[in-house]
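Please check these two lines:
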Amino acid sequence: MNRREAIKKTGLALGFAATSPLLMHLIQSCDSKKPLGWKPQFFNEKQALLVAALANQILPKTDTPGALDVGVDVFVDKMVGEVYSKNEQKQFLKGLEELEKNSESKNGKLFTDLESQQQYDFLYGLESEIQHLSFDSTPQEKPFFLMLKELVLLGYFTSEEIMTKHLDYQPVPAQLVGCEPMKSNQKLRVGNYF
């Protein structure tokens, strides 16, 4: 092998080695689905991704953590899987399925495939539809979206991060001072302090 051929082959090998990671990154980035980062116990992966997308739209990250930052999607998976009755679980899964069908018929795409603004607009429409309904507090009578919102809010406001860093959590019972005026910079006090 002469010197020219050796340089040519070395250049090709180096070029391939340098571009391989870039090509792999481009191929992987074509996949629009983000990995969960946790293994669902009750939901399948598609349902868990949908719950995560819904929770992220209900409580997105702002100057405070969003629902996904404090693990609300994991909380919903545990609550539905371990606390809900079989009928409530069926109702929840049916609600997820109907939401996807509704999104596909209105937008031509599954909810998880929509852009963020489209997801927001879709959920805003769902919220508008259920605002005028009156129902009992039993889960069987609640619209699916309301069941989901309640779980998301419960998981968010009872998470350790939110309770301890963003609310004035009082974990130990203390003296009850009724009708105490709030200070201008005081956080909302929550916990079992009564």
